[in-house]
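Translate sequence into structure tokens.
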Amino acid sequence: MTEISEQRLAYWFGLLGGVLIGLGGLVSLLLGTADLILGRPIGALNAAGEGVLLLVVGGLALVFAWLGHRQWSARPVPSGVMLVLVAIVGWVVVGIGASLLGLVGSLFVFFAGVLYLLDPAQRAFRVAVATP
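Result follows.
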């Protein structure tokens, strides 16, 4: 069996998290549409705003996961930092319990960011320990 590297696992976690956040945004937009049909315009605006924000956050997670895997594969630190920040923004947008898909997606994006940062942190630790 082949060994899965941290960057490859981070890429898949980032993709999964971005897709889950995007699905949470689509569900929120559908709920906003249902609120609008039922005559609750304030609830519809709230759900639509959350849906758009979740779609943007999910798109950012997908972009930075892809960049960390393809374009910035030699330098995973920017992707890792950006994915951690996107996860934090996702948690702020979703809140506690507002969108389960968005919350789980943000958790996967956070893990992706941490996994992108593992190898550079290990190398920096080895260098710090090796120098007298």
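Note: The radius of gyration is 18 Å.
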